[in-house]
Amino acid sequence: MPNTKNIEAGEGSNKRRKSVGRKNKGGSILPAQPEATLSLPRYPEAYFNCKILVGKVLDFDFCKNEGFPIVEWLKAQGLEPLFSINLPSYPELIKEFYVHILATSKIDLTTKVKNTEIKFDVPTLANILGIPREGPRGWNQRNWLVNDNFDKVECVKLLFGDNADFLQRMYTRNLSLHHRSLHRAVSTHILPKAGGFDEVTHMEAYTMYHLITGKKINVPYLIINHMHAIHDRENARLGYSNIITKILLHFGIDLTGEIHHPLQSVDKLGKGTLGRMGFKKHKRLGTWIPREEDSNRRRRSENG
After folding, report:
1. Cys-Cys crosslink for 47: which of 43, 133, 199, 251, Cβ 3.0 to 4.6 Å?
2. Whole-structure pTM over 0.85, yes or no?
3. How far apart are CA 17 and CA 13, in angstroms?
4. Strand partners for 17
């Protein structure tokens, strides 16, 4: 009968013998198995289900071909680079970016991603994005901004007509086609939000007013303040995905192996966006009109 005394349990072979504990036989102790390293989560559980607002790019070619004034409005402010950032979003890194934002002054932002400190102020962010930083600094999420270069009554009349009341709520359905297109661009690039595109906020109106009139506006300052506001808001949608990617690249964050999502054709503000906003191009007139207006025209034509 074979000797099975020194066979290790579960090995299934009589050639491997126990060497641990053998005295004066020159046996070596088997190396210990490395312990599994527990990786700490990058962000608290509250951020697990946070939604990411996918970045957008403006279809400049389409807007130029249609003669839309938004191209000249953005060009006059030097904002074309901001509306042309075609970079993928990194959901895990975006959440990490927001969760580590420190409560600092509203003229700069400090956070941490992959154990690397990221700190930038208005001039640094302007340099990263390749856009100007001229113009007055103003921020107020609840009421109209008050400064010497801004008149809220003039702003409302410019956007909604001479009979508009600045005390009333502002809705995009009362904007012209070109102003509605600009509002969508502002609320996806400069002050991104998840929904509520039917309403114009005070800050959105303030931003649109400066873009339309050509008065300088400090967009990097607005972005920094809005990032702080997103961080402070519970269950907020996390915006600026492609801008954050550009910031991470500037600070040398290694993106290798990170889950990412490239921009899709639907993420381009252009013809499809106008369709989703309820506009269609009139075949005979060659102009963009509300879809319901085209339906009314057809009904009147059919009724003689």
Report:
1. 43
2. no
3. 9
4. 7
Please answer whether residues 277 and 173 qualify as being in contact, where contact means their C-beta atoms are separated by less than 8 angstroms.
Answer: no
The letter for the amino acid at 12 is G
* Segments making up each domain of the chain, as ranges: 52-295
Q: For residue 140, give Cα distances in angstroms to 101, 158, 201, 233, 244.
A: 20, 20, 10, 15, 23
Tokens of 112: 């941490």
CB burial of 212-236 (b: ≥16 within 10 Å; e: otherwise) equals: beeeebbbbbbbbbbbbbbbeeeeb
| pLDDT reading at 179 higher than 80 | yes
- Please answer whether residues 126 and 120 qualify as being in contact, where contact means their C-beta atoms are separated by less than 8 angstroms: no
What pLDDT was estimated at residue 148?
A: 85
89, 200 contact by CB (below 8 A): no
Residue 202 above 70 pLDDT?
yes
Q: Which residue has the tokens 């009904």?
A: 299
User: Given the DSSP bridges, would you call strands 268-269 and 57-58 parallel, antiparallel or unpaired?
Assistant: parallel
Please count the other Cβ atoms lying within 10 Å of the Cβ belonging to residue 293.
13
The 3-state DSSP composition of the chain as helix, strand, coil percent (nearest 5) reads 40, 10, 50
